[in-house]
Structure formats: C-alpha cells, structure tokens
C-alpha cells in the first residue's frame, strides 16, 4: 500500500496501477474459475493485457454474472474466509462476498484513507450511526477504518434519535457516520427536546447512501436543508459498494469523491461499453487491485456518475466522482422522458407538506413505465396533489400519479424490520426495490 500515490503525478499513478493490474490478472488466471473460463473463451492471454487501455480487449462483468455464478468468483478456499457479507439486493438477489484477513486489512486501509481525506484525525471521536450487522460490509469497514486511524468509536447503530442525542451529550463525538436523511430526524428531535444543535460536539458528518450534492457539486435539496438547520456542521459525501470493496470520499473542497488508485482501477462507460468524456454521465466500472477473496475485473456497478481528472485544491491528483445520479437498472422512461429516482427524490424532498414518500414504478397495459408516488401528509387535499404535480411539471416536465396515505404506513414501508437501508423506490417492473 502506498498512501502517498494520490499526490503523485498522473503518469506515476498510471504506472502504479498498471503494475498492480498485471499482478491482478495473473492472480485471476490462477485462482478464479469464472475469469479463467472467460480468458479461455475470449482467447486472450492475460500477458497481453499490459495497460489500462488494454482492458477494453476483455468483456465487462455484470451483476447477473455474480448472481448466476456467485461461487465461481471465489479465489480462495472456504477456510481462508474470515468475514462473509452480501450486497443489499437493490437490483436483484443479494450476492455473497467472502473476505480474507488481508481483504479486511485492505478495507480498513481504504476507510482510513477516506477519513483522512475528510480531514479526520486520531483526536476525533466517531459516532457510528449505521448498522454493523445484517451482513453489511460498510458498517464494519467504518469501524475498522476508524481503528486504523486511531479514533475512538461509539457504535450506536442506526435509528433511535433519542439514543443518538443521549450519546452525543454523554460521549461528545466530533464526527458521525450517518445517512443524511436521518440527520433531518436528529434535527426534528432536537427541536422538540429543546436541544441547540449548533452547541453540540458534533462538527462533521460523513454521509452514506444518499446524495448531498448536484452533479455540479452544489448542495441539493437534502444538503441545503441540513446546512440551513445545522449551520457550521461540515458535510462530506462518501460513495461505496460491496462489490467495489472501496469508497470514494470528499475532501474539504467538496468537489467529488477521491479515488485511491492503488486499490481499484475505474472506467466510466456508456451503454455500449465505450469510455465517456469528462462532463458526460458514465457507468462506474471497476477492476479490483489487491483483493484476495472475490476480486472483480471490469465489473459494471450500475451506478451512473460524472467524473473529473482535474487536480483538486487539496493537492491530490486522483480522479474524482460526483454523487450517483442514478442506477442503470432503475432508469425510468416516462412519457418520453428518461429519469432516475434521484431526480424524483430531489423534487419530493423540496415539498415541506410531504412528511415522507415512496416512489413505485410499474408497467402499464402498453408495457410502458408508470410512476406512482405514495405520499404521507398531515393535510392531504386536491390542492396539495395539484401543487405537487405542478412542481414536477416545472422541474422535470412530466407529472406522476399521486396518492396520499398515512405517514405511519409510509414509514413502515420505508423501514422494514429486516432492512439495512431506507426504501424510497420500489420497482414493480422487476419486483425489486
């Protein structure tokens, strides 16, 4: 591992990655049943792949490959597996990943770098507001990364604003790992309990699972709400996934999540598998570096982002990615308009009369997409329905169907007992949410 590589020249970064790529290909050839068969099928000797550009000679790997041949991706015997996790199943059946001792060390190293990118240090105290169980990789990664950096950690878990505030008041954390929409619940509880959030010990939050920023890095509605209600609280976005075994985290500049080049190679591809230019949306496609248990080669994550390679004000020369603008499998074609769920969230999050909501997409009798938004509101009315639809028309040119329900019923859908993440999108086209 070489944490200083992120400050080196682009040429040195590329040289480092290509050396590690060649090692990864040799490892896959020797250890991975899936990739060994792929190399044989494509009739491409791994020694021919010497540069990042050469990767394009190989086909990409998809979520469907992982789901149908999960065990064939494992490169070590079962007795070498220390930790077993799964993906969330957002776009299909969950996929199991096995991590070795070295994989866990790599995960901790990545998160330590992420925390350092956000300006954290050993003197910080972290309140972990995410689950560390339920087969969830990220919670464990955050805990290990904090330990690697030397921070104190208080593992509170998700939910229960009263317990979170009790912990803040007693332990005096300086930073929290949290889903940003939950910060709004912390703010609401503080108002009811007479707590002045600006006087708390919490000065930074590292946010997961939801976007804080627009593609141009300005704060989106959720980000603006938190910033307005909790002035002085510094917010940092981090984007990660189980398949990547990696996270991109913002620095103080807030201009995209930084890449750690010694850990993965990243490509940004269009629907046809071609590289996109900076300023164009592309699907994050990764190649693992240094993973032992289940390394991936040219894996298409389904996450759509923008990227930039311009040097950052923080001094790092690594590429940066925006918040996820959508997921390929969740693309909606509605009345001639192409949409992703985050565009719908952005509208709904800006409607104060909506206590909560769930977005459902289904196929109509013609086989085209339909959108229904189930809204929890204290005072539903035809006027509010019209108001919501008018906002949609002004923002995205089309208006979905709106139905009002009890906010408590919507909350029960959003937070199922065995769930790991808040559910705001349900895809009836495939049966997945």
Uncertain regions spanning at least 5 consecutive residues:
none
CATH class of the largest domain: Alpha Beta
Give the domain tally: 2
Helix content: 25-40%
Strand content: 15-25%
Mean of the pLDDT scores?
A: 92
CATH structural architecture of the largest domain:
3-Layer(aba) Sandwich
Q: Report how far apart the termini are.
A: 37 Å
**Describe the biggest sheet?**
9 strands, mixed
Q: Count of DSSP E strands? A: 21
Shape, please?
A: globular
Task: Summarize this structure briefly.
By secondary structure, the chain is an alpha/beta fold.
Topology:
Elements (H helix, E strand, L loop, with lengths): L9 H22 L1 H10 L20 H6 L14 E4 L9 E4 L1 H17 L7 E4 L8 H13 L2 E4 L5 H11 L3 E4 L1 H14 L10 E4 L13 H9 L4 E8 L4 E5 L6 E2 L5 E6 L12 E7 L10 E7 L1 E2 L11 E2 L4 E2 L4 E3 L2 E3 L1 H8 L5 E10 L5 E9 L4 H15 L4 E5 L1 H8 L10 E3 L6
Parallel strand pairs: 3-4, 3-5, 5-6, 6-7, 18-21, 19-20
Antiparallel strand pairs: 1-2, 7-8, 8-9, 9-14, 10-11, 11-12, 12-15, 13-14, 16-17, 18-19
Overview of the molecule:
There is one protein chain. This protein is an alpha/beta fold. The protein has 2 domains: 327 residues, ANL, N-terminal domain (Rossmann fold, 3-Layer(aba) Sandwich); 97 residues, GMP Synthetase, Chain A, domain 3 (2-Layer Sandwich), CATH 3.30.300. The protein is built from 11 helices and 21 strands. The strands form 5 sheets. The protein has a 9-stranded mixed β-sheet with strand order 4-3-5-6-7-8-9-14-13, with helices on both faces. A 4-stranded antiparallel β-sheet has the order 10-11-12-15. Strand 6, helix 8 and strand 7 form a beta-alpha-beta unit. The longest helix has 22 residues. The radius of gyration is 22 Å and the shape is globular.
């Amino acid at each position: 591992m070489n944490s200083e590589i992120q400050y080196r020249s682009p040429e040195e970064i590329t040289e480092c990655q290509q050396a590690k790529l060649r090692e990864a290909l040799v490892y896959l050839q020797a250890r991975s049943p899936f990739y060994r068969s792929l190399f044989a099928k494509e009739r491409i000797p791994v020694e021919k792949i010497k540069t990042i550009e050469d990767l394009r000679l190989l086909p990409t790997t998809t979520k469907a490959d992982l789901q149908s041949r999960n065990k064939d991706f494992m490169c070590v015997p079962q007795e070498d597996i220390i930790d077993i996790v799964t993906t969330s199943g957002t776009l299909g059946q969950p996929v199991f990943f096995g991590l070795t001792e070295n994989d866990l060390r790599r995960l901790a190293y990545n998160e330590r770098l992420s925390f350092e990118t956000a300006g954290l240090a050993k003197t910080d105290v972290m309140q972990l507001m995410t689950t560390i169980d339920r087969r969830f990789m990220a919670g464990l990664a955050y805990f290990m990364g904090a330990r690697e950096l030397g921070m104190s950690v208080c593992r509170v878990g998700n939910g229960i604003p009263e317990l979170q505030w009790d912990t803040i008041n007693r332990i005096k954390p300086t930073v929290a790992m949290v889903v940003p929409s939950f910060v709004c619940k912390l703010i609401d509880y503080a108002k009811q309990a007479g707590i002045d959030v600006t006087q708390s010990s919490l000065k930074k939050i590292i946010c997961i699972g939801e976007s804080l920023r627009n593609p141009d890095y300005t704060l989106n509605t959720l980000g603006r709400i938190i910033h307005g209600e909790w002035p002085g609280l510094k917010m940092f976005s981090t984007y990660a996934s189980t398949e990547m075994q990696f996270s991109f985290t913002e620095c103080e500049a807030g201009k995209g999540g930084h890449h750690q080049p010694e850990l993965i190679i990243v490509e940004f591809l269009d629907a046809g598998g071609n590289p996109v230019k900076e300023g164009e949306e592309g699907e994050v496609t990764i190649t693992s570096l240094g993973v032992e248990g289940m390394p991936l080669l040219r894996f298409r994550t389904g996450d759509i982002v923008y990227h930039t390679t311009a040097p950052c004000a923080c001094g790092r020369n690594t590429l940066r990615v925006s918040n996820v603008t959508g997921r390929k499998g969740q693309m909606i074609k509605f009345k001639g308009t192409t949409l992703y769920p985050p565009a719908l969230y952005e509208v709904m999050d800006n409607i104060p009369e909506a206590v909560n909501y769930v977005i459902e997409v289904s196929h109509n009798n013609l086989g085209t997409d339909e959108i229904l938004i189930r809204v929890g509101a204290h005072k539903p009315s035809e006027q509010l329905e019209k108001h919501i639809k008018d906002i949609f028309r002004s923002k995205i040119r089309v208006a979905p169907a709106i139905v009002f329900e009890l906010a408590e019923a919507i909350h029960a859908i959003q937070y199922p007992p065995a769930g790991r993440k808040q559910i705001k999108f349900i895809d009836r086209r495939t049966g997945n949410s």
